[in-house]
């Protein structure tokens, strides 16, 4: 790390201490915890004891800065010795098993990892036996140094900036760089969406100009109102098309998917919704200004009569254009406000749901309001009605009963439902489920996570089997769309796997078939805590057992587990624990946190390194499929654009 970053961090430490220590420039242990934001008492006490060079039970600012200066500018040996002194609680010059156990127990608490006492003993024994080269019953500084040299990544982390030793707040650097939306990679990876938006904008401009020219006789504000009205016809038509879930699911299996951004229908639905709001406000405002001008020039009617009565006779149904227009404006504004994120995500989903049902009144009023709207409405409206009737018929098929309910960690619900007859689905599909006892009119999306079968609403994950190298990324419960996908992949993998009858050797045919072009799958699951891995650990265990330990071209399915609450190897408080977990995993051939053979990595993935490794494997064109929080989606999408990977995000 640069000296500039180190100096900024020292400046931050100085300010923190000056604000807490007061005039005497001395702080005690509690103030030390507060200032450096070190919560775990063991490490706070050890740091405090090492920094308190005069043993006065308080640290001066000079003492702290002197110690940190040693860590920043000291040699690798100096930093290793500091780590050794942290572990050597009694200051005897060696680390005994009890001290090592205390350190590892504190590491577990700091990383929010819960393991039985027996497993803690195993971790202690694994690390101690590996480090105690002379079997003396204690670990010396030289032995710890020799052990750390077996972990190059740990040695590398010991040489980084002091900022990572005591975890300061993130210091963001302002870098002058080209905005992401103007890069060539962004335009290449979002070509379908950008092409659609360009055509959409062009159609709006053309319709606006044509409508204005046709109504030039009515004055400028009348022209603006008519132009916006024609754009509203187009946008309401597009909005209806984007609501046809069943048709979009069918189109995903055709060539249309390569031309139109069908996987982003929800985003486009939102964009068109906001466009309708803007056009309607301008349309209404232009008419109000025009009515105000007319009321002053001809004097036949007052402004309020133009707006709220049928006396002027404006409109093709008994002069109701103005009244229906006012009602429509109120309904559209209400729908947009109630569909905002802060309403949907703040425990008021019912407000969003019921306000959105007013689309029925909006369509009816639009037909009455505008003489030509029915021409735009009839085709998508009929298809939408057919879809609704099919949905009602499917939901009333009978025989759809919940067989089993399991409450999983982190408020996740697992439903086992008997599949109704004639109900077919494909891996990654989801269904809307209604439980009348809870809410008669509410339907919520549930991912179908059962085994592979041939076969209600499609998602971007349907394209996995057309990929050559698929990277599946699930954050938390975002794993659910990939559960059936993984089982389906391994089912097809087993069908292609060949066994030699005279020995135990087996291999997988590399010949591509029409149904699956996959050559490699990387599955990445990111969880906040340890319990969340319990959701699908049995499934992942089966998938691991399906593959041979070693294959000529490496594993077909490679799994990567990350636990974000666990301290990463960059954190000094986690070095001992991560070394012990690595040693025990090699010994027992399974991870202590999940029980899988795949080692759970602490912290968050370094996406640049992850995608660099994927790129170097050269298994074919890479498609990244993601389900999880929108914030992480932006990060991953930006990385995909840099590496030229196709990115798909699950939308429900």
Whole-number tally of structural domains: 3
- Rounded to an integer, what's the Rg over CA atoms? 32 Å
Which word captures the global form? elongated
Overall average residue pLDDT: 80
Number of helices: 25
Share of helical residues = 40-55%
Annotated CATH architecture of the largest domain: 3-Layer(aba) Sandwich
CATH class of the largest domain: Alpha Beta
Stretches with pLDDT under 50, minimum 5 residues: 159-169, 171-175, 451-458, 505-512
Please give the number of β-strands: 14
Folded structure, characterized:
Its main location: membrane. Residues 395-506 form the FAD-binding FR-type domain. This is NADPH oxidase 5. Pfam families: EF-hand_7, FAD_binding_8, Ferric_reduct, NAD_binding_6. The chain is built from 25 helices and 14 strands. It has 652 residues and is α/β, with parallel strands linked by helices. It folds into 3 domains: 3-164, Recoverin, domain 1; 199-386, no CATH class; 460-649, Nucleotide-binding domain of ferredoxin-NADP reductase (FNR) module (Rossmann fold). A hairpin with a 3-residue loop joins strand 3 (402-408) and strand 4. Helix 16 (321-338) runs antiparallel to helix 19. It is elongated, with a radius of gyration of 32 Å. Mean pLDDT is 80; it is low at 159-169, 171-175, 451-458 and 505-512.
